[in-house]
Amino acid sequence: MFIRNYMLPKEKLTTVELGESLGRALEKINEGNFLSLPVIDGKEFKGILMKEAVYRNYLESGKCNKEEYLNNTKVEEIYNNNYESISADERIEKASYLLKELRTPFLPVFDSNDKFVGILTHFAIFNAFSEIFGIDKGTRIVINMFDLPGQLARLTDVIRKENINIINFAIMDPKVLDLIQVILRVDTDDVDKLVDKIQSAGFKIGEVTK
């Protein structure tokens, strides 16, 4: 799962220019119900303008006239040019880690030629992981098992013998001893029969959601 498949391309972005007034920038932020916007200079990505930064800077400026402040202060005076970027060819897992660790609203995305091509947002990450977990697809089965070599192979072999397609699966750590949770989504019309087969093979079913 690559960044390029989930990013918002720059052609669809609302952006602000370095030379724009904060008043105009704030209009764009409010019109789109954004918390931040990419700052550009022509086609070049320069940084991030946060809505919170606009108001914080106004309060810290000590100016009494808000309209005068917004109209006379430029984006280039308060935007954040300290950012972390990511390649369009990177995998989504790295972006998820960076967004979490850096606490940034989005990551600017660059291609192999260091050309700005879009941004990756938290919402895009949520969509990607929703696909991984197969939300709204098939039947969800949670199996609790010990973290031992060969366990997954045994489980998938049980399902294979029933000629059932696994849409996707994920492994979670419930933080209990040496247990793991395997979350399956399967395509079957007779989930009860499959559950019986899994239990007969010695696995413990935690939850079934149709």
UniProtKB/TrEMBL annotation:
Domain ACT: 140-210
Pfam family, one: TTHA0829-like_ACT
Gene3D superfamilies assigned to the protein according to its UniProt record, in alphabetical order: 3.30.70.260, CBS-domain
Keyword Transmembrane listed: no
Annotated CBS domain residues: 7-67, 79-137
CDD domains the UniProt entry points to: CBS_pair_SF (cd02205)
UniProt entry tagged with the keyword Disulfide bond: no
Keywords annotated in UniProt: CBS domain
InterPro entries to which the protein is assigned, alphabetical: ACT-like_dom_sf, ACT_dom, CBS_dom, CBS_dom_sf, Diverse_CBS-Domain, Lmo0553-like
Protein name stated in the entry: Acetoin utilization protein AcuB
Organism per entry: Tissierella praeacuta DSM 18095
The organism's taxonomic lineage, starting at the top: Bacteria, Bacillati, Bacillota, Tissierellia, Tissierellales
